[in-house]
## 1
Amino acid sequence: MSAQVERLEHNMAKLTIEVSAEDFKEAVRKVYLRQRGKIQIPGFRKGKAPQMMIEKMYGKGIFYEDAANDMINATYPVEASACGLEIVSSPEIDVTKIDEEGMIYTATVAVKPEVTLGAYKGIEVPKADVTVTDEDVENEVKAELEKNSRMVDVTDRPVQDGDTVNLDYAGTVDGVAFDGGTAQGQPLVIGSSSFIPGFEEQLIGLNVGDEKDVNVTFPEEYHAPDLAGKAAVFHCVINKIQCRELPVFDEEYVQDHSEFDTVDEYKDNVRKELTERKEKAAQTDKENAVVDKLIEASEMDIPAAMVDSQVTDMYNEYAQQLQSQGIGIDMYLQYMGQTADALKEQMRPQATKRIQTRLVLEEVVKAENIEVADEKVEAELEKMAEQYKMPLEDIKKYFGDYEKEQMKKDLAVQEAITLLCDNAVEV
């Protein structure tokens, strides 16, 4: 048995696979043996009716569908592997013939497209500024101080931007209260933009105990359709004002919260870490820029089925990430008011970009004859062992020949990115 291969447009192909009468008959027999215990035939004890009697009563094809599925599952992987195509999608199966003489089915698949690679050396990319200013250092220090700050009550001044207020409010539209428009003891950070636009700014200048009618208009895209675009009045009472009190930044603070002894040493380290962070971000931006320009300069005809498969993979990955956080994908979709199809459609541009990126980089690997030695794979496994705090031998148990070959391909692609960046021109 061997598949007939027909190349189609847009890097699609159709495999026609034939199952002999003998193999199909055996598949039907196995289905009968699995299912006979569920079938009752008059005159026979349950599970004891002969195959011929069941087929006579329910029709010759009673077991055909399950037998066909069994044969497809058994034969398609073998034929797909042997057909000489690099298949990059799940198959679309169509059974075209099924009877006592066997079955014939087709599998329509996407094939990895060829890439016409654009010029990949001398790509121009923006020159990144990795300078760390004194202001950057001060902002980082302030951010760290805020992590160790405490909330204190404010009694000697009115509300300012950045304060946290505790307030009661009651909202009306055309003088009528509406659901969700009333609260007591509601905390609100002024400037957080967590309330309706224009609400928070109108509380600035009020003191504890002050009352004020706040006039706002709900956004046109508001989640409650009956309120969207409507003017509302919120009667507000300020119960409490609080602000963050930062600790004093001196040598005592530095010694208590770091490994350094002086403020200058602490700031020098902050500058060093910010520089490393900026350099790393700049390198990532450079890598993305050279790949984007190479994609733009290259040609490839990506089949829709290939994108569909990538979208499915991304959707499943996202579902697994949510599940690891204790959130089921169905619960997430319900909370977001979204469907699985809508989420997948949102993923499509990113899926296409992933495919384009991989294709052009693999083509660079081929053009430059980049090969990854076994020693590099070994070094990568050692890194993983260190990262996961596991013995190297235990890590290796998860990596057979296939997994190691995939790792070699991934490392080769990373080397291709390095080559592109090394040969890029910063302007």
## 2
Amino acid sequence: MSNESIHPEHKFTFGLWTVGSVGRDPFGQPVREPKSPAELVYLLAEVGAYGVNFHDNDLIPIDATPAEAAAIKREFRKALEATGLKVPMATTNLFSDPIFKDGAFTSNDPKVRAYALQKTMRAIDLGVEFGAQVYVFWGGREGVESDATKDPVTAIRRTREAINFLCEYVLDKKYDLKFALEAKPNEPRGDIYNATTGHMLAFIETLDHPEMAGVNPEVAHEHMAGLNFLHGVAQAWEAGKLFHIDLNDQYPGRYDQDFRFGSRDLKAAFFLVKFLEEVGYPGPRHFDAHAYRTEDYEGVKDFALGCMRTYLILKEKAARWNADPEIQALLAEINADDGSLTPYFGKYTPQKAAALKDHAFDRQAIAQRGLLYERLDQLTVEVLLGVR
């Protein structure tokens, strides 16, 4: 599989935790030997990636000594300089260690909440040290199995207090950093607070510095809830809050599968790529996915290349869709507007409202019109199948 068509301007990024996954799952032991962060940088450079992102403990183990941490950072920086890879985003692991078994910012234990703030401040410092300008917050343990155990209003307020505190920390340090909040409905908790992108968008508006916070929607997380990912992304974009994005694939209603991008629902992936390219989304195309457990590290390279190649193929398909004369003629017919009703739209005025109330509509004639959506959707499928 070739990476000749992949270039830095595509801004394809992967997390250390993605290509570094050793294939462990709840029912099976690792199938791949771990690689160091520096080795993973070289692997990503080999397949043509633009950048690499990390949780604090992807880079530096939680119990590392200062000397060990310094050595790891030296090797990581050396690999970045040798390959030219960037670090656009960083985040904190607030879910793996046993201390976070009942959450981090929402924990009922004040010692846990304070430790989570300390750990996040140190992780922010680490991310900024390597050039990150986006900081992602995924509340993987911020939830419950039983609503007897936590009051949801208290949990919301604790989360707000933590994000407000960390915003002030970033401002105090004069870091060039913005926050991207990542939603997920469940797993590893029974239910996770702020379960969807829409929840996060509403929550952001309650912060002391809402301008500093946006969202990091993930394909799998919205599909887990049975939602249309494109719609959540579009809402975030329209609100000016699409600060980062996680690309992968997922069967609805399942556990978090993190499949290779475009490997399950090509039509959904197509419309997502089409949207991102047409609105000019400027951020990295970050793949938060994992190679199958069946793979060795050559298979991991195939996985990473597959994510990037599928994105570029769908980008080309979107251009073909936009240039297809039959599709464009259908769109023109579907969206035909003779302008006769234009005076009724836009900003309200009493005169406009009165005129619209008096307008006579032929309801039955309007309802009888076929909308041609079947034909349009079939032509889309034919573009994707390569027969147009």
## 3
Amino acid sequence: MQEAAKGHKIPSVLAATSADNIWQGIQKVLYSNGKNIHCHKRGDLPVMRAKEINRIIVLKVDKETERLVVHIDGLDPMPLLVPKDDQYLIDEYNALLDYMEHPEVEDTAVRTYSETNNVVPVFRPCYCSIRCKKIRGKLRCFVLITIAAPPMPKKDKYGRPRVARGNGRVGCDIGTQSAAVVSQNSVELFNLGERNQGAYQKNDKRKKFLLRKMDASRRAMNPERFNKDGTYKNGTHGKWKVSKSNRKRLYKYRELCRKEAATRLYANQEAANHLLSLGNVLITEPSNTAALARKSKKKAQRSDKASQIPQKDGTTKTVHKFKKKKRFGASVLRRSPAGFQAELRKKFGPGYHEVPRMTYRASQYDFMLDAYIKKKLDERWHSLPDGRQVQRDIMSAFLLSCADDEFQSIDRNRCLQAFDHFWQMHQQCINTIIQNHLTICNSGIKLDKAV
């Protein structure tokens, strides 16, 4: 790696950092659940990382302006700009600037720890990274600074905590597109990765329109690459001809994808913060998102339902179509349930608990009968022996919140004690969804009448 870096005039620090990243990917394939090593695509913007604070990407204090600047070999110093309305970044910036101006505070912190055994956070920078993004047609560079200290508490402009932490248990059943939450004082059912209802449908129409336009332009500019029936001609090589209008459509498509990804990230972070305000102990099931996103491994099978296919001569032909092998890939891409669960794991910390999926089986347990009743995936309501019906995902979240102290099985006595209060909150949640005409994916809630 060092010889290749010298031949291509790559600094040794950047080469060593890249080698470390590559080795982490190889380790995941060799010793973990990784299957393939993925490389960056052509056209992806680079990420520069130098894991030495005093080489290649150097963080310093400008003595004239008393501000932090970044020095990169061969370029002029670049000052760090912090948004004026982000109090969290301002606090982090000021703490980092104080350490850079007075590095002797680290010795004082070590002395304090040796004498009193109290840890004093020191905002010492470890290394810097440069990440580039294209936002609204403009190239923007972001500096990511790794600091050897816990993050600053997030506060609003009045100095109050931005997220109020609650107490108690929170049961969360995470599906492919929605999540059900049950706490001591609330029952909620909401879509994942969504801030404004209906925004995804609008973006899908725009993206499909742009893809059709780009495909038509690509075929018109490169007719020699396609057969008469519209299929791609194998064996054709060379550079594709791309029109200016097609490049503009590509930029619009990428901007839509970037906005969707940002919306999905912010929505899941806001939902995780809301759950943090409901309690300090979160109970959920392990994630199986990767398995749900893959195609079925079974061979293609014929459907039991007969389909009528019209023929050219006016007659119809009865056939049994093949069942689709696709499952939840598009839903997982659109809603990012694994990303939401990762946010919960990060924010709750030691209060995050996962129950064993194979033995817990929250969606199948009936605590009144004390028995497990297997349900099909399309059965979205749980029927109790007394005739009452509970939404399936909400019922699973309730049973998760009633786990025993070891989080290994369901505590039936706790379910019986808390069910009456839970039933009232459940009815209120369902009525709120119906009255506000909220469309919850895969919930089975009909919006025509309230319960």
## 4
Amino acid sequence: MIAADSFKGKRLALFGLGGSGLVTARSLRAGGADITCFDDNPASVEKAAGEHLPTGDLHAFDFADAAALVLAPGVPLTHPRPHWTVTLAEAANVPVIGDVEIFARERRHKAADSAFIAITGTNGKSTTTALIAHLFRSAGRDVQLGGNIGTAVLSLDEPAGDKVYVVECSSYQIDLAPSLDPSVGILLNLSPDHLDRHGTMAHYAGIKRRLVARSGVAVIGTDDAHCRQIADALEAEGRKVVRISAEGPVDEGIYWQDGRLFSAGQDHVEILFDLAEAPTLRGRHNGQNAAAAWAAARAAGLADEDIRAGMRSFLGLVHRMEPVGHVGKTLFVNDSKGTNADAAGKALASYEHIFWIAGGLAKEGGIEPLRPLFGRIAKAYLVGEAAPQFSATLGGDVEYEISGTIAHAVARAAADAQASDIAAPVVLLSPACASFDQFANFEVRGEAFRDAAKSLMGFTDYQGGERS
């Protein structure tokens, strides 16, 4: 854990005592800050008090001489309306910050020369974050992986020059980090998201821009208009910008085309890598993720050959296009995290000859947006509440059966795949649905798929490298 001693002796209010909030409170206490912690949930306050963290009702807190209000990222800062603690802090002209801001200050204070790679974007940031961490880890570096990917950033090891910090940042975290200054900042893409918390697309894009605005090197995906504008503006300001694309060549930067990564300079184009050598990085969307990871790793000093080796051994994220194993010629892929049509479409577009397991608690729009991909599906196996709706959409275009449960669907799909004359069939769980009709969450659903596949006679685990 990082002891936030740059706040030693400073008086702080902290609101939000969930997982990351508790870590932040412990970090500030360890660094010697004078903190008062609170939450709207009395049970959370009681839990913090049980750890001997100083708690108190912030309604009665005197913000007049406070150094900051430390806010958990899940708490509204601006929209749909500021949380009441924010209103009190702003009335007293007290800055509102979060855990990523504290980390940024601690890094500058203790090891400003340490590599700090920060990643954001509407889509793909978790895969890109995990891939970058894996590239450095497989090259023998001390990697500290955290942030929005699931490990609170202040629970990482103390900043040191030999460590590489790889931190996924949500828009909420960036909004609470006014001095964020990674050595390499990545902005993958921008599309409307979380507008209930940010109000407008312009405001949302402005927040995301902050991650790259003060980066030593800004790696920016230029496949959407918002990101292109940000890249052009930063370059005009004299910032070092590396453009990436999954839609073809860029003048200077790294791009994906026809399954390969290319590096483009003023007078040359170099083939970097064929992603056929990295089975977990299939598809155009992963082409953008891989291009960003390569650009960031290069900028942070990793040699191209080390990057190639890391790409080959990357196993991907659990439950996101995760190769589980084989039965004979059939590959089993767990994409339980594909909880809507857009996510499932990325998986379907990445394979051919698919024995598709889909269904659960349907999202608005169902699977109609996937119709252009129906030709990739050999047969569908429908589970959960969405089965009747999905069967109506598939109609006579795709052969299907109502399987009911994941276990039954896996058994039926495996048998059909093995009996087919297809050389390399894929049994793919990509439900295009929430899990809550049959499972507590998508993780439990993915484990059910994995267990069902592993129970099949002749099953062998997928042979790959380390999963980040």
